[in-house]
Amino acid sequence: MWRHILKRLAQAIPLTWGILTITFFISHMAPGDPMDMYMEEQRQRQVDPEIIELLRQKYGLDLPIHVQYVRWLGNVIKGDFGESFRYRRPVLDLIAERIPYTLQLTLLALLFSTSLGIIIGIVSAVKQYSALDKGVTLGSLIIYSIPGFWLALMLVLVFSVYLGWLPTSQTRSMDYEFFSLGEKIFDRIWHLILPVFVLGLGSAAYKARYVRNRLLEVLNEEYILSARARGLKEKMVIFKHALRNAMIPLVTILGLHLPALLSGSVLIESIFAWPGMGTLAVGAVGGRDYPVMMATLMISAILTIVGNLLADITYVALDPRVSYEKKKPV
Amino acid sequence: MSHWIQEYRMKRKNRFKKLILFGAFVLPGSGHLLFKKNVKLGIHLMTGTAALILLVIFRWYRIIGTFESKAFDHWLAVLFIILSWSAMVFISVKHTYELLIDKIKKPRIKTPLVLASRRFRENKLAVISLYVICFFYLIAVLAPFLATHDPSAIDNVLETRYQSPSWEHPFGTDEYGRDLYSRALYGARVSLSVGFMAVVIAITIGTFYGSIAGYFGGFIDNIMMRFVDVFIAFPTFFLLLMLVGVFEASIVAMILILGLTSWPGTARFIRGEVLSLKEKQFTEAARAIGLPHRTIIFRHLIPNGISPVLVSAAMMVSSMIYYEAGLSFLGIGIRPPTPTWGNMMSAGRDALLVAWWVALFPGGILAATMLSFNLLADGLRDAFDPKVLMRRFL
What we know:
The structure holds 2 protein chains of 2 kinds. By secondary structure, chain A is mostly helical. Helices cover 75% and strands 0% of the residues of chain A. Chain A has 12 helices and no strands. In chain A, helix 7 packs across helix 10 and helix 10 runs parallel beside helix 11. Chain B has 2 domains: 98 residues, no CATH class; 237 residues, MetI-like fold. In chain B, 76% of the residues lie in helices and 0% in strands. Chain B is built from 17 helices and no strands. The C terminus of chain B is likely disordered. The interface between A and B is large, with 61 and 51 residues.
């Protein structure tokens, strides 16, 4: 098992290098260099060309591209992502501030979508071909197709604007500082409900379908037949025998859904004014803040890799049938 | 004496035939209904013609106006009307003629494609969604004639802004008093064309790339697929944000950006197909008779492995439309003067407290479009491969 984990880790390293490289080259595909863009954005056209030249030298933009690349790579490995044009602060600090919010949102959405997906999946698999099952199958496709940001707007409209039950945006209330601890926790949760629900709903629908199909497959296996033949209760058969085996591949699906959740979080964060990486990235695009754009892209990709790695390791740990040398079926 | 009668009868019969053919020409589909053969097609042709006639009657002045204007989209719409009408007439007359002379139809050979299309037609939801998609594309092409108002006309904002839905403005008006229904029609063009074109690009690149990697295997495959792995690791939306930030997002740039970032999924997918197909005997036979690699890949492997790619293409259109709308919603995709569903919703977000309809309708249409494409993909999947329950496409 340890060998397998080491192997996976070794595979992740070139992947990370690839991500860094692609990020660098995308940012350098732009016509002109960041300094041009920056000057244009700042409306500082009347700046002395000599000063611009000096700034170029300071940021190393006058060097040939491969030298810039190696330098940049060295800096990134040392954890130096440069300085934001807009905030005038190290990018790493900015990201470190924002990332807990994004993780909070995505991980809760992951938890929510998985639990909801499993429950609905089980119900609809157990009552296969019933009206409920058909409704769930079609309903999950409909929910999966609804764009999250639109759903978020509509839910805000109904629950925040008309009913006033939930807050429209932000992570906490205005008078958060004056709350007691219990109220603080409640306030946070209260603000999390809508974003987590919207973010998780689409992937819950997908997971429900997946769990249903997986469970139906497993229910056809012979060990289920033997379990039933032994006279076990149906509950026992489903929860103890079928479900455990059906759940294992779901771990891989969780890993695969992480990029989708991160993607979705960009829009959801922007709607709920959530101070996460998504809003940071959107703001950076608006202001042509190259260092921040590059850093958010890299970090989101690295988060994905880490997520997949974790999913992979969990998969091996959960399923003793997978011999670590063999390729695992996907 | 008797041959005269025969001649007379022939003449009468011929005249009758001509009459029927003329009927089929004037009113496409009448022949089908008269002979009670292929009635479904007949009804389709008739409703199609009726819709076109209604459109021409109600929008006569605008259509005539086209010939004086230089608006490209008007010309396109007129061309579309003429082409679709003549296609319907052609089909109608041809079929009616074949029915008149009792042409014996060749029985259809049950190729996999025929069987698949039969299975597809049995799936009602998928067929309906196909109709809906065709309907949306029709709307997109005919937008200049279907719109009730100019999508960007602004007059007397104070009086016309934020009017709730009414007969005059079915979807209401926005902050500048523009008719949202007309804007939604024009927005359909952006979304649908971006979705379709981006998927065409992605599928083409992905298919070539994946089949080459899968076919040659070994070292080449390893290198090529590592590259794909790197691409897939990027969360799509962050990658798109970066690219949109680097390049200015016009419609063309949007198509290219979306197309060029979404091919790796297809590549990985078709590589898997090719890997299994290349072990099959027909590939071995093709190799044994000395066909070049090019022929084996393009004539044998890709045609056999393409059907799941088509399924994923339908799903990809839905996600491309979503990404485009999402970027425009954030205000960094296609910018406001051009109406898109995304930036209409963005305006709707700002107006959420005063005018719910601004965000509701574009998003609803967007959801309906995405749902149709997903249902279509579902139907295609069942049609192509009834055994497969659920595959991984994300």
